[in-house]
Amino acid sequence: SFHLLFGNNGEALRTGYYPDSHKLSQEGESSLLQYEDFSVRYGELLFDSSLTDVSFTKAFMDNGEYLFNSPFVSPHAKAHGILSIIREKEGCKIISLINMLLQKDAKWNESKKEEPFCEAFEVSVKIPSSDYEAFASTPEAPSMTLLPSKVQFVGTSMYLRFSSTSFSLWCLIVIRKKKS
User: pTM for the whole thing?
Assistant: First the structure.
């Protein structure tokens, strides 16, 4: 449905009904284009059909392959939280974090408060070997940045531990095998 949002002379839909749209301000349109550019830049990661969604099966349960030291991170889109969408395939893990800390609901077609920057928090991801690294990007700072990380053992399991980057609305974290 992204094509519905980015068309019609700078207008955005307010409901699923096509004629119910609203003309965006110049600042709103610029912000929307920034997010569109971001989704195009990282489209091969965001729209890779070979990635499997493991948000509910490998995090927030007994499995514990993805650990967040923030009580706000959840696989559920809810007010006053940070939505996490975790997808992976062999050699690549992708975490999308959506900041909803100030929101009173999770409805897409309701006006929202502008979010303050979400402070960085610690993330640990189970990895099969020590040759993995983590990168992060946001629409506000679209270059992919290498996150300082360290390999840590918890029992017999190996984890890559790093701090997320600060972000306003959306943070994309990529964990992948180092290129040789």
Answer: 0.84
